Amino acid sequence: MIVLVLFVLALLAPLAAPAPLAAQRPSLPQPGVLRVCADPDNMPLSNEKGEGFENKIAELIAKEWKSELRYAWWPVRRGFFARALNGRYCDIAIEAPGGLDIAAVTKPYYRSGYFFVSRKDHNLADMTSLDDPRLKKLMIGIHLLNSDAENAPPAMALSRHGVVGNLKGYNTFYSDINRPEAIVDAVANKEVDVAIVWGPLAGYFVKQSKVPLVMVPLAERDSLVDYPFRFNIAMGVRRRDRELRDSLNTVLAKRAPEIQAILDQYAVPHFPVQEERGDGR
Q: How many Å apart are CA 14 and CA 84, to the nearest integer?
């Protein structure tokens, strides 16, 4: 129903393989090798330098299994699961929405949500709901998956609250021009008054900002239309690879403190994991 925006991970329509995979080929899993699909330029999640929290979690798993870590670099967008994972370019996706149908997912290892991000000197720290009447007068930064803004939960909910003419969209497909930090920088630079940002992205770039910024979590669900604003995050494998999924569950349980420490290191805000409702919420 409603997709998890940050990641654009649930956009599943197959596309042609991206350029970085030209030299890579799908293959069967190999003993002693941990093959992970990751975005080459999507901090704080991952990059080719191994600087993201997905990279650090993958390294932790590889060390636990005494396996060689190899990456299949694939931008997180359409086809990430359908082509990269199910196409056997890799065997594991470090992040997958809980309850994802196209893959087998582990038990969730964290839960995050959307946050209001504003400048501390704008005195918007008391803004906690899309019901706030100030939102109709403020310029709002928001991530869009396409031009109609009717796909990410906050954008969908804002339209139902009558907030439609004062949104400034930011790309979720990153490049040298469109950067993941742009939406947070826009708040710091006063290009927008407030932004609604997925937690891991917000926490990481707010921490790096030279301008004091404030993060306030949206509620678990929207008060008007019941759209969810918080989601469980698990790991994904191919549906038939149940043994691999079960092995990952064992590692997630055994190494939970280390994984939480990695998330904290990257300022990833997280909430207690909740039982799935059957749609990842």
A: 9
For 111, the token pair is: 């839960």
Closest CA to 88 of 18, 29, 17, 9: 29
Average pLDDT per block of 10 residues along the chain, 281 residues long? 39 39 60 91 94 98 96 78 81 92 92 98 96 96 67 87 91 76 96 97 97 97 92 95 96 98 98 72 51
Please report whether residue 172 resides in a domain: yes
Question: In the chain, how many domains are there?
Answer: 2
Question: Do residue 118 and residue 208 come from a single domain?
Answer: yes
Amino acid symbol at 60: L
Q: Are 22 and 55 contacting, i.e. CB atoms less than 8 angstroms apart?
A: no
Pair 99, 235 in one domain: yes
Reduce the DSSP state of residue 184 to 3 states and report it: helix
Paired tokens of 133: 């009447």
Q: What's the burial of 70, exposed, middle or buried (CB within 10 Å: 0-12/13-18/19+)?
A: middle
Residues 244 and 187 in one domain: no
Cβ-based neighbours of 174, under 8 Å, separated by 6 or more: 39, 41, 42, 75, 180
Tokens matching residue 273: 């994991």
Residues 105 and 235 occupy one common structural domain: yes
Write phi, then psi, for 250 (nearest 5 degrees).
-65, -45
Contact (Cβ atoms closer than 8 angstroms) between residue 41 and residue 47: yes
3-state secondary structure of 260: helix
